[in-house]
Design brief:
Strand order of the largest sheet: 2-1-5-4-3-8-9
Radius of gyration: 15 Å
Number of strands: 9
Strand content: 15-25%
Order of helices and strands: HEEHEHEHEHEEEEH
Structural class: alpha+beta
Largest sheet: 7 strands, mixed
Shape: globular
Number of helices: 6
Distance between the termini: 50 Å
């Protein structure tokens, strides 16, 4: 019953969100807010700090509504399949949702196939900084590519096109590598 209520809230929130704006608030050229979260990779938990990861290369940050839901599984599988291509350009991928870290540990191994980080953002503290909070601690499906200097070079919001997030962020990472 709780899952049905969350799905209804997400759909209602998404419909209202689409009518208010069709893209994320933080647009290209803006500075990405630094943040620290607990993140899982292959079931192991570590601290993720954006500023530390940017020293290594660009970061693909994607917000997703809820672990183990259909669209989020499709998106996680697509990012997992493309992870080697992102790695070629030195990009770190991290997905964030409001799920707790225990759920993210499972999602990291089962759906992300231990290929990239899945962070826990309970209460959507980070989601609010990035203006992706939707309803009931559920973020809108929004992706960012953040250059090493901390500026956003790509932002894309679409609740109903999970695979498009991978295509758009990979294209942005490729373009960034050519600079």
């Amino acid at each position: 019953m709780a899952v049905i209520a969350i799905v209804v809230l997400v759909l209602l929130g998404a419909a209202g969100f689409v009518f208010r704006r069709t893209r994320s608030h933080l647009t290209t050229g803006k500075r990405a807010p630094d943040f620290v979260v607990q993140a899982a990779l292959g079931g192991d938990v570590r601290t993720f700090r954006l500023s530390d990861e940017l020293r290594k290369g660009p970061v693909v940050l994607y917000f997703f509504p809820k672990s183990f839901t259909s669209g989020c599984i499709v998106e996680a599988n697509a990012f997992s399949a493309a992870a080697p291509q992102f790695a070629e350009f030195g990009a770190t991928i991290i997905g964030l949702s409001g799920d707790d870290i225990e759920t993210q540990k499972k999602f990291s191994t089962q759906e992300c196939q231990s290929t990239f980080l899945i962070g826990s953002d309970p209460g959507l503290a980070v989601g609010k900084q990035y203006d992706v909070a939707l309803v009931a601690n559920v973020p809108n499906r929004t992706s960012y590519v953040i250059a090493q200097d901390g500026t956003i070079v790509e932002s894309f919001t679409s609740m109903f096109q999970p695979q498009e997030h991978v295509a758009k962020t990979l294209a942005a990472v490729r373009t960034l590598a050519r600079r």
